[in-house]
Structures are given as C-alpha cells and as structure tokens.
Predict the structure of DUF3846 domain-containing protein.
Amino acid sequence: MSVVENAPVGLRVDKDGSARRVPLTVDQYGSPIGMLCEQIGCQVVQLVRLAGGLDLWLDEEALVFLDLNDRAAVTAAVNPVATMIASRTAPLRQPIFGVAVFLGGDGETSAGLSVEQLDELERLVALSTEIVARGQSLAAHVGGAH
C-alpha cells in the first residue's frame, strides 16, 4: 500500500522496530477503526491518548490470547519501540503488545499526523530501535556470548 503525497497518514510500528507510513482511511462514518484493525491485524483496537496531539492505537486482543506466565511469549509479544515512545508522554500500566499505529488527535477524534509529528515519531523510532539493539547486544554479551 503506497502513501499518496499530502494524504493523511499514520505511522505503523512493528514489534521488530520497523516503521512505515500508512494511509489514513475512514469509513462512511468518519471512523478509522477498519483501517486500524487491518494494519494491526486484530478485530478490536484500543486507543491510548498521548501528549502532543498523538493517539496510539494497539491490539486490544493481545492480552486475551497471551499467557502472562510464559516469559518467552510475553517477550515475543512486546513492542519495545512503541512502548518506549508511548511511555515518554503517557503513564503506561503495561508494555505495548504487537503492532501499534500512531495517529494525530485532538482529544476527541484521530486524524492524520502532521509533518512535524511524523518527523518526530520517525526520529524516535530510529533512536528507540538503536537503544533496543544495543540492549540486546549487551544482554547477549553478558549472557555468555563473549
């Protein structure tokens, strides 16, 4: 799916830290829920309002199917990059699981990201991805892979 120049977009962040711009499409009622469910890969999404006019949409079903006692499963489900970005502006009770989509928001409705928001989010994705990679490298080294 390509993004048309000057069309409203969101930023999809996958569990591996990769990010891509996605077109914001709405249904006949002006709701982006269908597009978000498709991008995230679930039937039910959850909204987390962040500071700075950002909305974070995530997989509401993730916890239903996740065994919280299975440390490996929890680790595999966490989206560390989205969690790091969201925790900068919102108190999170848990990490972000699965694919996350950032949109702009005015406190009532979600909208496409502004150029400034998109630039800042892409910068934060790059920084967070680097931090996660360094942490994994350090963990491998400390864990005996020297």
Summary: The mean pLDDT is 88. Residues 9-140 form one domain. The helical segments are 33-40, 71-77, 80-87, 115-142.
